[in-house]
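Bug #77: duplicate submission created two jobs. Keeping one. Sequence:
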Amino acid sequence: MLKKTIFLTFLLMGAVLAREANAPKPNGGKAGSKKNYSMRISEVWTYVTNYGCVGGEGNSGYDGYSWPGGASVNNYYLWLSYFWAGVQFNGDYFVTWHDYVSPEWGPSEDFTALTGPGKSAYDVLTSFDDYASSNTYNSNGRHLGLKVIMRALSWPHEPFNDFIGHEFYIIYNKAECDLPGGAPDVLDSLMIAWAFDADVCGADQSDPHIDDLVAFDGWTNGEWADLSFYPSPTDLVTLLPDSFADQPDGVYDQYVIWGDEPEWEPILDSSLAVDYTRNDTTYKVYIFPRGMSFIYDEDNPADPGDDTGENGMCAGYIGGAWIYAPPSPSDSLIVNGSDTARIIRPWSHQWWNWENDPPTDEDQYKYMFGIHPATAPYRYAPHPFDMGAATFDYRFLISVGPFSIADGETLKFVYIGAVGQGLNGGVDSYWRSNAWVRGLRQDMDWAIKAYYAGSQHSDPLHPSAPDEDEHWKIPIPPPSPELSYRATPNGVQLVWNDEPERTPDPIKARIDFVSYRIYRSVYNPQNWDLIAEFTRDPQTNLIAHTFVDTTAVPGFPYYYVVTAMDEDSLESPKSNYLKDSDGNPISVTMPTRKGSLDDVIVVPNPYYGSAPWTATEIADKIEFQNLPPSCNIKIFTMSGDLVRELNHNDGTGSEAWNLLSKNDQKVVSGVYIYKITTPDGEYKVGKFMIIK
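Kept job's structure:
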């Protein structure tokens, strides 16, 4: 079933130039045209646009919360996500949104996007609007006059590399509003929402979208207390920053514990802190609801048997939450003596399936306000099973509001999108060689910690906007150097620049560079092997900026990265491998030399099944390499039966075999004999193994 078809064009990203820590770099593109900007330094690979959406299009090969980044398949978790803003005015509903059918936001003509190191290790700063004078995507008489400036933030290092942060500055310009009856001085009842059309996940080659389920992790106003399948709140586990225990701890699992890591979460002098004891240690903590919508993989109803998680390929949960929003009726205010806390809560969590995308502004606004007939009477729509719905393809929408915004006023928001190993974390045997990986709850908690890191007078119970206090002051590794590499007769030659050596750490305000590390991978840019490391010469204070890999085997597609280490052992992202104009990885291959029979090798040997020979080719084949320019290759079973004959006469040093017999049947596992004969009668006999 064809879910959707979208055609977008990726932008060629310019080279990263050194600038001050809080200033990303101009992308060099023309303002006012639709553009996409790749974010590929964290474990979550995605792209950001200047027209109201983030990530997606997995079936077109682009990154959409692809996790883990650089996997051998585009393991996307997000088809597309959409930014919505809506109001009620003069008895009617007006919503500006983006979806894959009728996008209504347009690029801001007076804004040039910026990319590069900024508040995070890699920022993308864009702007889109709904201005009557320039936006032709929305209908006349329905422009809200809103401009949205969005900054996306990402980090390459643990434990901050499984989420993407988004700051939003929303500005109302009355002169650009053309609502019927005249533009108001104040837009009342403004709702803001983010919708995720998640598909868990791209590693599932058969209908990854129709076997999903959706839920909410937070305060549900008592609406879920009596539900039979997925009640909330519950206390089943003890959630730790890097693990969990299957036992209750007296705190609802849907709530964040803030303060049990003093080095990360300083508590302001507050009477709202409570005692929390774990492992015989008592902490003063805040406890507040997480407020997160999420989607995860379930059984495909069209497939017999248990396919939940796709045998480990799709064990991630994708979710999102608003961690900062201006004061609104959805908040809770707690007054304790002279201390007043404001707990930010989403106004609604809603979902629908792909056959019921809301067609009108009224439908869209009612979902944002939590009063749509499809999910009534719930502001926080329960799990599908509790509403009599089946496993299917779902979207979630999480909204905040309602707000009032006056002409010229700016409202500020922070949204987090993340992917984690289940809700609470677990062992990832498929992608990460049995490593323990954080869950979605832990990722969201670390995102909140990152947002308030460095804050002087605010925390989650005394929240502040992005420009009202210090935020995101987490340790940041050095930038990656600019890198180039090419195959030479002596090996693969790498050359990189000295940017990490002249870029100060933004927190320390000084240079803390220590060393370079060179990594290599084969077939795809993941599972990197460290092959060399360089530190400064103690006598000359110099350090290498070139390296020749003499161990690269001819015929194999390789990728290389050079990272920089600092004095805190933080390492820059493994992201500076070669890429094409669309951001796709480019491999380098040492040419197979034309050799004598003594040089002939078979790769891979043994053969273990379909292999990703290049960034785009996954094939059943082996190659005979270092062949003479002309020869005959015969392949036999161990009992002497001829399986296939190949005539090599193209003058190159390699010949591929597609593992089909002379009768075009797939060969079976076993040991095979090959005989290579030259025109003058010389020959070589060898063995290789096929394991399927």
